[in-house]
Amino acid sequence: MAKKEYAFYPGCSSQLKASASNYLVSVNAMCKTLDVKLTTIPDWNCCGASISYAGAGELPRHVLNARNFALSEQHLPGQDIVATCAACWLGARETKEKLDASSQLLADTNEALKAAGLHYEGKAEIRHMVAVLIEDFGYAELGKPVVKPLEGLKFAGYVGCQTNRPFGIAGESFENPMYLDKLVETVGAEALTQYDQKVTCCGGALAFSETEKAMKQIKDIVESAYDHGADMIVTPCPLCQANVEVYQSEINKTHSTKFAMPVTYYSQLMTVAYGGTPKEAGLDGHIIKPTKLQEIAVKVVPKR
């Protein structure tokens, strides 16, 4: 039996063969080291993310999330629901808060779920993987499996919007959350604590419809990382990772810059520090290769 067990909601982007599949690969490797069992919610559906806000209406949006909650309660009773995607976690957490606060919305939601033979009891807790790591393990415990400290690497912790506002991680400042910096330090790297873009929006889905505005945001995020001496950016959000990595080439064309800043996930840092291979850390899934992290990953684990 695993040390910790959770109901897992992978979301569309983080599932295997999707845009952030390397995130899931590294999360699985990290969890294996920490003796965490993630059981995927059977027959889970998309949380709705951006599109449900645009045209679906409030009730359908909450029913989408509540269906996942009800399935989790039915198949994985007593287990907290954990999401790795910031957008999935934010949308699900909002639904949970609103259903808890409104008996009418809860009744309407369950009326809709009845057609699928489901009922939401309101028992499931919705958590982001980062919160699980910090609250259920703690930094000291997370540091125990480190066999390859990421010494000499400097990381700009880019938190972004969705894991920070409006809910955030318990006990953290909205203006200057420190949990990414602490995770970086836990695995032996240097956290650039004065990085001033850590909670700036990357533009999110507006990168598709308002590309120039989003690129301005992304340029500031990357430029500040360079200015602070970062080797890499680290983030907990798949959309932030994709936007900040993918649009660097377009920014280079538009502004004659030479950006090539790798953008990694906290779980990749942890997997490498725990002795994982480049493949186990999902380092082969990047457009801008995190070369310095790869170099540490291929080193032989020192004998203790």
For the residues shown, what is the average pLDDT?
Answer: 92
- How much of the sequence lies in strands comes to 5-15%
- Succession of helices and strands: EHHEHHEHHEHHEHEHHEHHEHH
Shape type: globular
Q: Per CATH, which architecture of the largest domain?
A: 3-Layer(aba) Sandwich
CATH first level of the largest domain: Alpha Beta
The count of domains is: 2
The number of strands is 8
Oligomer: single chain
In what order do the strands lie side by side in the largest sheet?
2-1-3-4
In terms of structural class, how would the helical and strand content be classed?
alpha/beta
Termini separation (Å)? 27 Å
Instruction: Supply the number of helical segments.
Output: 15
Rounded radius of gyration (Å): 19 Å
**Largest beta-sheet details:** 4 strands, parallel
- The poorly predicted ranges are none
CATH topology name of the largest domain: Rossmann fold
List the topology elements.
Blueprint: E1 4-9, H1 11-14, H2 21-34, E2 36-40, H3 49-56, H4 58-75, E3 81-83, H5 86-101, H6 103-113, E4 126-128, H7 129-137, H8 139-143, E5 154-157, H9 179-186, E6 190-191, H10 206-209, H11 211-227, E7 232-235, H12 238-246, H13 248-255, E8 263-265, H14 266-273, H15 291-297
Parallel strand pairs: 1-2, 1-3, 3-4, 5-6, 5-7, 7-8
Helix pairs in contact: 2-14, 4-5, 4-6, 5-6
